[in-house]
Amino acid sequence: MTFTISNCIPSYANHRYKIQHAFMKKIIITIDGWSSCGKSTLAKQLARELGYVYIDSGAMYRAITLFFLRNHIDWTDDIKVRDALKNIHLSFSYNDKLQQSEIYLNDENVEYVIRDLVVAEKVSDVAAIPAVRTFAVKQQQSLGRHKGIVMDGRDIGTTVFPQAELKIFMTADIAVRVDRRFREMYLKNPNVTIEEVKNNLEMRDYIDSNREVSPLRKADDAVLLDNTNLTMDEQLAFALILVRQIIGQTAVRQES
Ligand code: DC
Questions:
Q1: Which of 133, 176, 142 is nearest to 38 (CA)?
Q2: For a tag on the chain, would you pick the N or C end, based on fewer CB atoms within 10 A?
Q3: 8 Å CB contact between 19 and 49
Q4: pTM of the prediction?
């Protein structure tokens, strides 16, 4: 199933839709796509609207990378990788104040440190290691066993939940993606340059889509969402239409 999005979703764009939770069938929603095309923004919006759990699978690969870097693990050595994985415990906890779930590495909140460029520069290499993927995918699948989950990443619709009821594959122009990531990173580190951010995105996209295990690709039954020219409200409205088609419930419209 592939829809191409038109730039106007007129009657929905300015309203918020809350699905009635009580009668709602719980589904699994997967959001895959290129780096920095707004997957986590959409996933968080959807989870909030639907009362679902949001899981950022990329955060798991980032936390593993952080552990490897801190402990000087040689990740080209399969035995060292497998030993190191035995010492990694990952969990998510919801931060009520910030209204977001945050990742913990061995009980330390690493939600912010994993976003550093130092981690971003290595994470695609680490995420390409078969043992690392097996470790992460197992936990991701277990997080989805009760459904009612939105998970974003690169292989969620193809490998983690191939049976998911709704799969979205996101894309956006590279210039727009670089601009979005640069603004985000600049707030934390004003020394970062656009060139660095662009190189990092292109490198990760290349490694993620060319690795042997679970490369980034659109699942055949995923809906394509190009948000280059969409506002956040428009992309949410588009996704909620898809959700309603699957759940078959009437959405309750609330003026925002
Ligand atoms: O979504 P992100 O940028 O935080 O992801 C970080 C890296 O992890 C990204 O370069 C690819 C990898 N990743 C992956 O291989 N599979 C996933 N399901 C999620 C992320």
A1: 176
A2: C
A3: yes
A4: 0.87
Residue 7 lies in a domain: no
Which residue's CA is the nearest one to ligand 1's atom 1? 58
Residues with CB under 6 A from ligand 1: 35, 57-58, 61-62, 123-124, 127, 153-156, 204, 208
Q: The domain spanning residue 183 has which CATH number?
A: 3.40.50.300
| 144 in a structural domain | yes
Tell me the C-alpha distance between 131 and 53, whole Å. Answer: 26
Task: Quote the DSSP letter at residue 193.
Answer: -
Tens digit of each residue's pLDDT (9 = 90 or more) over 131-147: 999 999 999 999 999 99
- Which of 42, 60, 133, 208 for mutating ligand 1's site (highest number of atoms within 8 Å of CB)? 208
Which token pair is 190? Answer: 């004003």
Indicate which atom in ligand 1 lies nearest the CA of residue 61: 8
Number of domains into which the chain is organized: 1
pLDDT band at 99 (very low <50, low <70, confident <90, very high): confident
The range of the structural domain enclosing residue 66 comes to: 25-248
**Dist. CA 57 → ligand 1 center (Å):** 7
In a domain, 221, yes or no: yes
Burial 114-150 (b: 16+ CB within 10 A, else e): beeeebbbbbbbbbbbeebbebbbebbeebbeeebbb
pLDDT of residue 98: 85
Could you tell me if residue 20 is inside a domain? no
